[in-house]
Amino acid sequence: MKCVDDFRLKFNGKEYVPIIIGGMGVDISTPQLALEAARLGGIGHISDAMSLDTADRYFGTHFTRDKTRQYKDFIKIQDKTGIHFDLGAVEESTKLHVGNVMEKKRGDGLIFTNCMEKLTMNASRDTLRVRLKAALDAGIDGITLAAGLHPNSLRLIEDHPRFRDAKLGIIVSSLRALQIFLRRNAKLNRLPDYVVVEGPLAGGHLGFGMDWAKYDLKTIVAEIHQFLKTEELAIPLIAAGGIFTGSDAVSFLENGVAGVQVATRFTIAQESGLPDDVKQEYLKAGEDDIEVNQISPTGYPMRMLKNSPAIAKGLRPNCESYGYILENGKCEYLKSYYRELEQHPDGKNICIKDKTCLCTHMRNYNVWTCGHYTYRLKDTTRQLPDGTYRILGAEHIFRDYQFSKDQQILLPEE
Ligand SMILES: Cc1cc2nc3c(=O)[nH]c(=O)nc-3n(C[C@H](O)[C@H](O)[C@H](O)COP(=O)(O)O)c2cc1C
Question: What keywords are annotated for this sequence in UniProt (predicted)?
Fold first, then answer.
């Protein structure tokens, strides 16, 4: 019987433990978590979501405060077309975040950044170009293009000196999405270095509709595998979504994937950015406490705990401070908020059920997004006499994935 450690993920002749910790915005996949994955010979992600805010927290900068001051006159206006991100601030904050983690990197693994195309930031092309270039300038090992089809993202950095040396990958949830990406980028003469195939059991936003339960990761992986074979394209495939044990991972690795991307098991790691009391909520959750809903203004369904504080709140939008999902001055949450404000002109007792202010609530860790198997997290650790659960180090979880066999999960010592 094999374990994950019997396999290696190869990039340009170098070998890695085939475990990738997926990006979890906003800063749930912290630098500390990514650094652990790299130290242990695998691959870790940081997230480039809300980089201004993340930089303020880590480095004491004032990007968000400055932006809020600059645009305070928009607070009572629904049309946010006039709010713009300062591209210099986007560049500087990205460089601070990426540069800091790359400086601290030890071990044989790699650190990638997860780049969400759906963070349109009221000027999607310009802000995306700056984010991608700044991450490359600051020495990131690779960029995973996530949440969106990214038809033009590679073109934005084709003139960057690191365009062919950095690892560039894409997340897809269907063969069709991959085909569109490949077709749109055919002229660049640069294939993605890896393709993450994310199935419907993942956390965060899903690349499926509300009929997600009709799909399964193994079938999608097999389809994409066959397509790549037929087209003679040697792109490593990474399977993601619902891979909960080392044995789950082995079953994919034995069927031709080059690695696995996992996240849910690490949400409760010491190094995860979630506050400790929220980690306990994840650990306590039962299967019925998890739902896939449509409250994200991005338009993608999202899986989360039903008791997430972000659900059915009536927060005044914070686009002046954040505004990461604005597109041509609009966001689906703004629409919902102003609809409700008409009913409650005093601004009190507003409760918005159909959408959430994703920026504010993600920033404050109030969207408890999670993978389908979150309800099994309690089986990965020990309960303490006070009823809470022991929080595990990322190394423990990583090693469990790497060495466990026979669907075993290694519990921490008593
Ligand atoms: C809390 C959480 C936040 C996530 N946030 C993001 C994100 O910001 N961008 C992204 O591409 N994927 C995100 N994901 C998806 C993961 O990177 C990963 O591909 C997936 O969850 C793997 O499945 P698993 O959680 O069942 O192991 C998130 C997942 C979780 C659990």
Answer: Flavoprotein, FMN, Oxidoreductase
pLDDT digits (tens, 9 = 90+) for 212-238: 999 999 999 999 999 999 999 999 999
- Given the DSSP bridges, would you call strands 43-47 and 110-116 parallel, antiparallel or unpaired? parallel
Among protein residues, the one whose CA lies closest to atom 16 of ligand 1: 22
**Backbone φ and ψ of 313, nearest 5°:** -110, 175
Say if CB 217 and CB 199 are below 8 A apart. Answer: yes
Identify the three-state secondary structure at position 329: coil
Tokens 């408890």, residue located: 368
Mutation pick for ligand 1 pocket among 51, 208, 264, 302 (CB with most ligand atoms within 8 Å): 264
**CATH classification of 4-274+382-403 is 3.20.20.70, yes or no?**
yes
Token couple for 241: 């979504």
Question: Does the model's pTM come out above 0.90?
Answer: yes
At 356-399, the pLDDT tens digits run: 999 999 999 999 999 999 999 999 999 999 999 999 999 999 99
